[in-house]
Amino acid sequence: MTAGNMELFDAGQKGRGLRARREIITGEVLLAEPSYAAVVFNSLAFQVCHSCFRRQANLHRCAQCRFAHYCDRTCQTAGWEDHRQECAAIRRSGTAPNDNVRLAARLLWRRNKDQGLASDSQLVPVDQLQDHLEALPEDELKKLELDVQSFLRYWSCGTKQHPAEYIRHIFGLIKSNGLTLPDQRGLQSVGLGLFPNLSLVNHDCWPNCTVTLNHGNRSAVSSTLHSPLRIELRALGKISEGEELTVSYVDFLNLSSERQKQLKERFHLDCSCDRCSRHIGDDLMAAAAEGKPSADAVKEVTAFSKETLEKVEKARGDGDHGQVVKLCQECLEKQEEVLADTHLLKLRVLSALAEVLSCLRKFSEAAEIARKLVAGYAKLYHPNNAQLGLALMRAGVAHWHAGQVETGHKMICEAYRIMMVTHGPNHSITKDLESMRSQTEVELKALQQVLDMKNQPMTSSSSAQENTKDFLRKQ
Ligand SMILES: [Zn+2]
Ligand SMILES: [Zn+2]
Ligand SMILES: [Zn+2]
Predict the structure, then answer these.
(1) Closest-approaching ligand to the CA atom of 89
(2) Residue limits of the MYND-type domain (predicted)?
């Protein structure tokens, strides 16, 4: 089976896989697939549009079930075909069941309608995806059984009944293949969806592709120009003809043993990728500082850092920003002479601290911390990794707000370059970056003009610009 520039093939031990049918260039979209079925999490049902999955204020409520919410009429109309039967089922049962049950029902309504293949380019029928039920531990199976019972009650008035065994398989495949969907700024997970073709792409800890959710465009004047919510599989670099396409199911910033553990638990797979078999990156992620501290000191600071990160997590949950700053600063001081700048525990503390300092609008301090963070990330991540791009964007904004416009502008440009590869020109994050790039450029030019007017020698040092900015403020 083929679809556009890729085809299904037997990937040996990994089972089915997808490979390129011709040479692919960096940033090329290999697959753009609308969700086969998707739901907004119940907990966010009133804050996220059930059609385009954007997080918005003032959503319009479905007058019939009072559960589904939409940006506007356009989104409601576009989402009606997927919501019609759900709307009736929620009204019948008086309440919406949990996320998994709603997704399973949406999947089966769709399945009944189109017999499993939504389009010519769908490579396998949705119910032929793997369920990995045999690998589920006892307590997970019990939870799954509760979902099956809940589903049968919810579905009871549906037209076609399904045997419990089949429903179990559907819940298993949702568990193995369901993808959490972020909001339009990539800040929060807001829902769960199924994308049959994407499910065929195997994992690699150092993948050649990345997955992005595009929320589509329904703002165009003509509805023929509207585009739906879809995932996009994009090439992180050049891919040769015949090469297998891979994505990473877990964050690369973990030691190989930890990644393998996560992959086994969540996806029932044993990773034998190059990074894992040769433990590439582990040395940097667990490195001691250059001054060669004693093994005991490393052990002590490692334990202290882990404890601190737990406390930080709790303080963040409580919204106690002051406490997060205090804990992180104390920990960074201890780590300074002992752990390297690429050590995972140091990066996690830096990440938490930069985020909170930005929230507190302490931009100069946030900028300094964020600069260390991206320097560490850059040594570990693939140069086109989206996480690196997002970190650069946050660091760039912190520098800009701290008045360090030139450094901020450079970081924003670099973030923009990465996002053009991983998210493409039409994603809202890329568009945000594009507008920040031009704003910082205008500010830089204005600063330069003031410098020229004052007839000072040309300089590009940020301290000179600092002075000029102060001068501008005083005018
Ligand atoms: Zn919407
Ligand atoms: Zn409704
Ligand atoms: Zn691996």
Answers:
(1) 2
(2) 49-87
Identify the H or E element spanning 78. helix 73-93
Nearest ligand atom owner, CA of 80: 2
Q: How far apart are the first and last CA of the chain?
A: 67
Looking at the CA of 229, name the nearest ligand: 1
CB-CB contact of 176 with 132 (8 Å): yes
**Helix, strand, coil % (nearest 5) of the chain?**
55, 15, 35
Least confident range of 66-80, 156-170, 191-205: 156-170
Full set of structural domains in the chain with CATH: 1-33+195-279 (2.170.270.10), 36-188 (1.10.220.160), 281-360 (1.25.40.10), 381-475 (1.25.40.10)
Please tell me the number of the ligand nearest to residue 68's CA.
Answer: 2
Q: Which of 438, 429, 371 is CA-nearest to residue 409?
A: 438
**Which ligand ends up closest to the CA of 272?**
3
Examine the pLDDT at 468 and tell me if it is beyond 60. Answer: no
pLDDT at 471 over 50: no
Residue 308 confidence class, pLDDT cut points 50, 70, 90: very high
Ligand 2 centroid – CA 90 distance (Å)? 8
Give me the residues near ligand 2 (ion), CB cutoff below 5 Å.
Answer: 62, 64-65, 68, 87
Q: What percent of the chain has pLDDT over 70?
A: 93
For the chain, state the CA radius of gyration: 25
- d(CA 254, ligand 3 centre) in Å: 10
pLDDT value for 342: 97
Distance 88 CA to ligand 2 centre (A): 7
**Which ligand number lies closest to the CA of residue 87?**
2
- How much distance in Å is there from the Cα of 65 to the middle of ligand 2? 4
User: 233, 232, 219: which is closest to 54 by C-alpha?
Assistant: 219
Residues 6+ apart with CB under 8 A from 396: 407, 408, 409, 410, 411, 412, 414, 415, 436, 440
> What gap in Å lies between CA 113 and CA 98, rounded to an integer?
23
CA of 108 from ligand 2 middle (Å) equals: 18
What is the pLDDT averaged over residues 131-138? 90
**280-303: pLDDT as tens digits:** 999 999 999 999 899 999 999 999
Overall average pLDDT of the 361-374 stretch:
98
Q: Which ligand does the CA of 219 lie closest to?
A: 1
Say how far apart CA 130 and CA 123 lie, in whole Å: 14
pLDDT at 156: 73
* Contacts of residue 470, Cβ cutoff 8 Å, sequence gap at least 6: none
